[in-house]
Structure formats: C-alpha cells, structure tokens
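Thread: Newbie trying to understand structure tokens

Hi all, I'm a second-year student working on a class project, and my supervisor (Dr. K.) asked me to get a predicted structure for one chain before our next meeting. I've only ever worked with sequences, so writing a 3D structure as a token string is new to me. If someone could post the tokens and maybe explain what I'm looking at, I'd be very grateful. Here's the chain:
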Amino acid sequence: MKRPYPTYDVLARWESPSFNDATREVLAERLERTPERRFFTEAEWDRLEAIVARLIPQPDREPPIPITPWIDHQLQEDRTEGYRYDDLPRQAEAWRRGLAGIEAQAQRRLGKAFVDLTPDDQDLVLRCVELGEVERDDWGGMSAQRFFSALLVHTVATLYYAHPAAWSEIGFGGPAGPRGYVRMGVGERDPWEAPQEATS
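---
Reply by user tm_fold:
Sure, no problem. This is what the structure looks like when written as tokens:
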C-alpha cells in the first residue's frame, strides 16, 4: 500500500519552532521510555501482544510501536477517560475478563491458546468476538462486542497514533503548541504541514 506522506518526517523538525522544550520533553519520554509490566500477568501480557499484532500489524516497523506496555501502564495507574459503558465493568476488570474471554474463544473454537494460533486463526477468533459470536458464560456477563470496539480497538488505535513514530504516516504535524494551527478549513493546510500525495 502506498503511503500518502512517504517523505514526511515530523521528527525532523525537532529543533524547529514547531516544538518547544516542554513538547520535546514529552515526546522524548514517549519515544525512549517504555513502561514495565506491572498490571497484567505474563500470560495476559503475551496474549495482548498477540492481539495487538493482529489489530495493527507493523511488519515494516522495527521495533514496533509499543502498545501493550502503555495499556498496562494506564491500568496500573487507573487512568480512564472519565466514563464507562453500563454493560462493562470497571476498566481493570473489563480488560481481565476480555482477555480471558478471547482465550476461551480460542480454546473453544480451535483447541489452542490464542498465542499458539496461526495469524489467520487469530483473526477468526477476533472476528467472532467483534461480532459477538461467543459463549456469554466466558465473558462474565460482559458484552464481548462492547469490549472489542469500545475498549480493545479504541485503546489500541489511540495509543498507536499517540506515539510520535506514527505521526508521519498520517501527516500529523504534532501538538498545536507552541506554533499553533492557523488554516483550519477543509482542504487547507499550514505551510509546514505535509502535502498529501496521490495514493492511486
């Protein structure tokens, strides 16, 4: 797949007026510091790593953008978005039940641990969870579909695109401060923003 911003590198402007010291400090922490496992068990961590690899494959990025460590960090610190759906338990419990539910789905359908499945079989299990084609007893009364869309996919995608290493591929110029964005209309861009190339 051709990328729409193949030559753009937002981090090449590290010393430019685009970033100030406070911004550089935050970006450096995200780029250089990966949290250690504190919340998940080793088995949960490995399972989530395998799930993340199917939701956002990163075959051309080495090392891949770390996502599981930041989910673990959020859960250990009990950082939430300030709300939750009424068909999901509190965040920490929802993640534990969700990962256990995915494992149960893998065992029921294919007789193997999720981490031991082929990528195609892992996709099959995740598709069943997405569609809610699961045994409800394996989910402790929690909605598998809600967990999949509102917690799992939402969190994984948010953390991926919150990482500075992913910004260039979507043409994102980074935080608005201190420089600010001026041209906000549809199809408009500031001079320092990446021009999008044709993808067809």
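A couple of things are worth pointing out once you decode it. The chain has a mean pLDDT of 92. The longest helix spans residues 91-110. Feel free to ask follow-ups in this thread.
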